[in-house]
Amino acid sequence: MQAIDLLEILPELILLLVICFILLVTPFFKEKEVNDDDVFFTPNAAGFAYQLTLLTLLVLAIMFGMRVSDDPVRIMNGLYIVDPFSNVLKSVSTIAVMVTLIYSKQYLIDRQLFRTDYIALVLLALLGQFVMISGANMLTLYLGLELLALSTYTLTAMRPNFPRGIEAGMKYFILGALSSGFLLYGMSMIYGATGSLDLDDILRTTSNDPVMHLVLSFGIVFLLAGLAFKLGAAPFHMWVPDVYDGAPTSVTLLIGGAPKIAAFAITFRLLVGGLQNLDVDWQPILIFLSVTSLIVGNLTAIAQTNIKRMLAYSTISHMGFLLLGFLCVYDELAYSASFFYAVTYVLSTLGTFGLLMILSKKGFECETIEDLKGLNRRSPLLAFIMLLLMFSLAGIPPTVGFIAKLSILDSLVDAGYLGLAIFAVMASLIGAFYYLRVVKTMYFEEPTDTSVISGQGFAKGILTINGIFILLAGIFPAFLTTLCLQAMRTSLQG
């Protein structure tokens, strides 16, 4: 490994050193009693680890932000790529995890999860995302994927004396292992047909008529099945509602937020960076996944009374919408539209689950739509922020979600997929129903709980900024769309 390699992966090394420090040093901190029955690391160990983590994530986000205009560099013998595309995605992932921890702090304390091992696992999941985003080789991508997956499996089942979480963790682990098998089998078939795991080599090999085209086709089928599971796209969506509902809300946000950025990145690296010449084989599969996800996600979400399950099914529909951008092959505008959609979806999801955690308290989980009754009377600010978030997820102007959906629809029409674009619009109209139902519950129904929502001032401040950004990015989207387009263009040219 050369010195330039270490310099390029300096943010990843910093994150790894912080994880090691948290795991090896903080256990020597003195434990402090919190109440009569519960003793765990706080504030000496967990509090210190939490503050160190937020500081580290802030520094990493700044480092990645300063690199967004750098030229693409391949390091570690071509296994790892650092380019504007990866730097933007890593910056967004880092900010998303930092905001997730800010929203989660009081929630974790109330449920005895504010521990150093929890924070370390969150950082390990983020490290896995970094590897997924910058992987230039199938083996690198898989290692990053498994680091992320194993961390989230553990976090899902981590809450003590919570059978629902343990059940969700078991389902997540078993189905995740199955999807990893699909992914590995697909990669092995592609390796057998091309003789390489390097994405650039695969792209060059498939630029001519492949000798083993049938093997490649089967490999693509298994590869996309594994990717569809990681994205939560139908019909490989079975784990999503159970895990979203069964996991603690802080873990649900961790799974539904930043990892979607990494899932988009690995899909882009594999389909565009390695298998773009075989688009005739994977386009029909993507169309099937997109249409199925839009149908299953939107129709099933209507019947949900649990807001976490509703958001889980809406996630399935959003992943179907995101995949539509990949159908426009060789179109950098379409790819950047999917890029923009992934970023805006994560920002909206952060605020939504963050608000649910702020409304939750010790002994009470804000999990059903009924729990939001009359929120406008209890806290007009939180109700307005939730309204903006629901409008964004539904794609209603002037929020950023409208611009994101419009960008993908515009790309579909330009590429000749007019029927798919019309279908996506109709699916979005169905989806608007269950989002507007939440708004109606907050503004037009009497509250069942009239207590004042107090405390968590810092988290509420960040949530307010989150909501304002959703609105302003919809009114003035040029900066974010240009950033995504330039990063995507540099990645495609590199």
Verbal overview:
The protein is an all-alpha fold and 494 residues long. The chain has one domain. Helix content is 73%, strand content 2%. It contains 21 helices and four strands. The protein has a two-stranded antiparallel ribbon. A two-stranded antiparallel sheet has the order 3-4. Strand 3 (73-75) and strand 4 form a beta hairpin. Helix 4 (84-110) packs antiparallel against helix 11 (249-256) and helix 15 packs antiparallel against helix 20. The radius of gyration is 22 Å and the shape is globular. Mean pLDDT is 90; it is low at 33-42.
Report the total helices. Answer: 21
Question: In sequence order, what are the helices and strands, one letter per element?
Answer: HHEEHEEHHHHHHHHHHHHHHHHHH
Strand content: under 5%
> Spatial order of the strands in the main sheet?
1-2
Q: Report mean pLDDT, rounded to a whole number.
A: 90
What is the overall silhouette? globular
Class based on secondary structure composition and strand pairing: mainly alpha
**Could you tell me how far the N terminus lies from the C terminus, measured between alpha carbons in angstroms?**
22 Å
Report on the biggest sheet. 2 strands, antiparallel
Total domain modules: 1
What percent of the residues sit in helical stretches (DSSP H or I)?
Answer: over 70%
Rg measurement, Å: 22 Å
Number of strands: 4
